[in-house]
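Input/output pair, single chain:
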Amino acid sequence: MNSMTKHIFLSSALLYTTTLYNIPPSPVDRIWNITYDALKNNVESKSKLDTINTEAAFSNLENIEQQLTEIESSLETIASEIPRIIMGYINTLGTIIAGTGFSVSNISVGKATITFDSPFPTPPFVVASIDYTINRGEAPSVSNVFTTGFELNTFDSNLSLFAPHPASNKAVYFIVIGSN
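Output:
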């Protein structure tokens, strides 16, 4: 029994004894009674404060949880509006030199299929360019753009505008931009 409990117990016993036998309380009894009443009121007040603080804490937690749900929803909206971008550089053999999120399959000379690791929700925009440090004067073409990938076609240039341009493997840079 700690000293606080002993004081409360003794004070309660004295109060009971003086009340039972109609003995007027001594000055010490009065001090004990005042101390007992003060401690009792303090404990009751603290208990009420704990209840109020607990209710306020739960209310605050509910508000914070609601705010976090709203923030999460906003972040999902923002994330869906940020465009998804895939960039790549493939050499004349169709080997990936730079970039991630895609694979390359050579179909035939001058024709490769780029397949995305994960599809876009809608067909993306694709722009491709020949590596002019290796190939001068040629231009790639992009065809069959789907949510899962696209075809890349490269040709040899010819001085004649009207002569056919034979297919040829070229080093190509490309960028794909689509929705998330």
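DSSP finds two helices and eight strands in the chain. Residues 27-81 form the longest helix (55 residues).
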